[in-house]
Amino acid sequence: MSTIFWIVALVIVASASTLIGFLLRKYLGLRSVDSAERRADDILTEAKTKQKQILLEANEKSILVMEQAKGEVSDLRKDLQHQQKRLEQRETLFDQKLLDLENRQQSLYDKAKRVEALKKEIEDVKSQQLQKLEKIATFSQNEARDILLKNVEEKMQNDLLGRIRKLQDENNEEVEKQAKEILSVAIQRVSHSHAAETTTTVINLPSDEMKGRIIGREGRNIKTIEQLTGVEIIIDDTPEAILVSGFNPIRRHLAKRTLEKLIADGRIHPGRIEATIEEAKKELALDIKKAGEDTLYELGVTGIDPKLVMLLGRLKYRTSYGQNQLLHSVEVAKLSTILAEELGANVAVCKKGGIFHDIGKAVDQEVQGGHPEIGFDILKKFGLPEEVAYLCIAHHEDAPKTLEGVICKVADAISGARPGSRKDSFEHYIQRLDELEAVANSFAGVDKTYAIQAGREIRVFVKPLEIDDYKATILARDIADKIEKELKYPGEIKVNLIRETRIIEYAR
Q1: Could you list the residue ranges forming a coiled coil in this record (predicted)?
Q2: Beta strand 457-462 with 494-498: parallel, antiparallel or unpaired?
Q3: Which of 2, 110, 160, 349 is exposed most, by the fewest CB atoms within 10 A?
Q4: Category of 8 on φ-ψ map: left (φ > 0), alpha (ψ -120 to 50) or beta
Q5: Do residues 294 and 411 both lie within one domain?
Q6: In-domain check, residue 69
Q7: How many CA atoms lie within 13 A of 489 on its CB side?
Q8: Distance from C-alpha of 238 to C-alpha of 29, rounded to nearest angstrom
Q9: Domain count, the chain
Q10: Quick one: 409 and 465 in the same domain?
Q11: Has residue 358 been placed in a domain?
């Protein structure tokens, strides 16, 4: 019984606890809901208050913005009105000027018509007067003009001659003075030696016994060398020496190297000769390349195609009138550079044009045509500028088109005309003097002609009764022009024309 009692009691207590907990939880829940609603009401109230403040501030700012915008619009309207007034004033001024111009144009048109009318009247009067004069003088207009000009020419001949001489003397003195200063400075700053070569090369032998070994059995050695190098080997009675003859300097040099190697080696037979020639060709190619590279390095020229460098190096073995062409090209480049600096020309064009002006001579023995045209085509092929390639042609033109062309022509003449730079054969020298005298003797009134100073000067004696002082001046110019057109020569030739009148009387 007691156990049941306690169980019932526990159930009752548990039920009462559950009921009390439920009621307590419900009470607390109602309190929290009321508290949340009160907080939500507070938040809404605060938000509405802030909204009102924000709206008030926005209204105030919008009012300020509108006032500022109204002020800017008002200013803009004032500016537009001011500009409109200025445009109206300008339009009015332009209309007025246009009316003035139209009035002036009409006035000028009227004046032009009056001038044309007056001109026609003057022409009519002039024609009438000329007709009257022709009737009075019994001469036509052309005949009277010819007679007048002839009389004036005869009277003014001496005065004209004096004026010509005076102008020539003044201009020539000033030009020569400045030219001599510039050229003397350029020549003093550049000094090069010149190797005078001919068409033969001497090779020294250790003994005359070596001549037989070079000839070989039945001449097979010498025939092999001549066939593979393209030169002629001359073996005569000259002790311990043989000659290598050939027009092409590169082939002569190849043969010389081959023979020197064979003589030093001592083994001379066709097989060894072929191997030695191939070895000499390789060494010669390297030497040519090095010569071109050293030349460009000396002048400070870069960016040149290697094939063009090889062509430049070939000039080391090319001569003209005995003058080494590579040394000549270097000298022309340096002279052109100095002259370009003095005259304000393009220094880079003059330097490159000077070093490559005779590049055509590197292949002119293998390619048909003159070396100026060949050189121009070569430089264009390797991408050099037109003004640089033109100098290949300009240095042989009578009147180059550019200042750089004139400079290159002058530098080329200086290098070729320097004493000792070139070497002529005796026959060619005599032929050149004869041609020079023949040109002067071809003119009427020339008595005697003498070429002196190695062809640098020609003295022309004229017949004084046929050539007066005025005609002598013109004749000297004509002789110089004909020499320039018909003859080829380095430097310049001075034409010294002499008119001498001798009057002899005897007192007895």
Answers
A1: 33-177
A2: parallel
A3: 2
A4: alpha
A5: yes
A6: yes
A7: 21
A8: 143
A9: 4
A10: no
A11: yes
pLDDT value of position 194: 46
What amino acid is encoded at 380 in this protein? K
Express each pLDDT in 40-78 by its tens digit.
778 888 888 888 888 888 888 888 888 888 888 888 888
CA distance linking residue 436 with residue 492, whole number of Å? 12
pLDDT tens across 95-128, in order? Answer: 888 888 888 888 888 888 888 888 888 888 888 8
Question: In this structure, is residue 2 part of a structural domain?
Answer: yes
**pLDDT, mean of residues 275-290:** 88
What lies within 8 Å, CB to CB, of 259 at 6+ separation is 203, 214, 225, 233, 242, 244
Q: Tell me: do 123 and 177 sit in the same domain.
A: no
**372: pLDDT strictly greater than 60:** yes
Percent of the chain at pLDDT > 90 equals 6
Residue 218 has which token pair?
């039945």
Token pair of 131, please?
A: 């007709």
Residue type, 307: K
Domain that holds residue 64: 1-127
> pTM higher than 0.85, yes or no?
no
If DSSP codes are grouped into helix, strand and coil, which group holds residue 450? strand
Beta-carbon contacts of residue 505 (< 8 Å; ≥ 6 apart): none
Long-range contacts of 154-162 (CB under 8 A, 24+ apart): 157/470, 158/470, 160/470, 161/469, 161/470, 161/473
CB 204 within 8 A of CB 241: yes
Which residue in the block uniquely carries the two structure tokens 């003004």?
Answer: 387
Cα separations in angstroms, 288 against 79, 188, 313, 478: 82, 29, 5, 46
Q: Inter-axis angle of helices 403-417 and 386-394, to 10 degrees?
A: 40
- Residue 496: beta bridge partners? 459
Q: Is 241 exposed, middle or buried (0-12, 13-18, 19+ CB in 10 A)?
A: middle
Residue holding tokens 């097989």?
A: 271
Q: How many CA atoms lie within 13 Å of 385's alpha carbon, on the beta-carbon side? A: 10
Listed residues 127, 149, 169: the one ending a domain = 127
Domain-terminating residue out of 417, 440, 466 = 417
Tokens of 474: 């013109």
Position 478 confidence tier, pLDDT thresholds 50, 70, 90: very high
Rounded distance, CA 368 to CA 390, Å?
19
pLDDT confidence bin for 243, thresholds 50/70/90: confident
CA distances from 54 to 61, 107, 399 (A): 10, 78, 93
The CATH number for 487's domain is 3.30.300.20
CA distances from 187 to 73, 131, 180, 283, 334 (A): 80, 67, 10, 35, 10
Report yes or no on 194 lying in a domain.
no
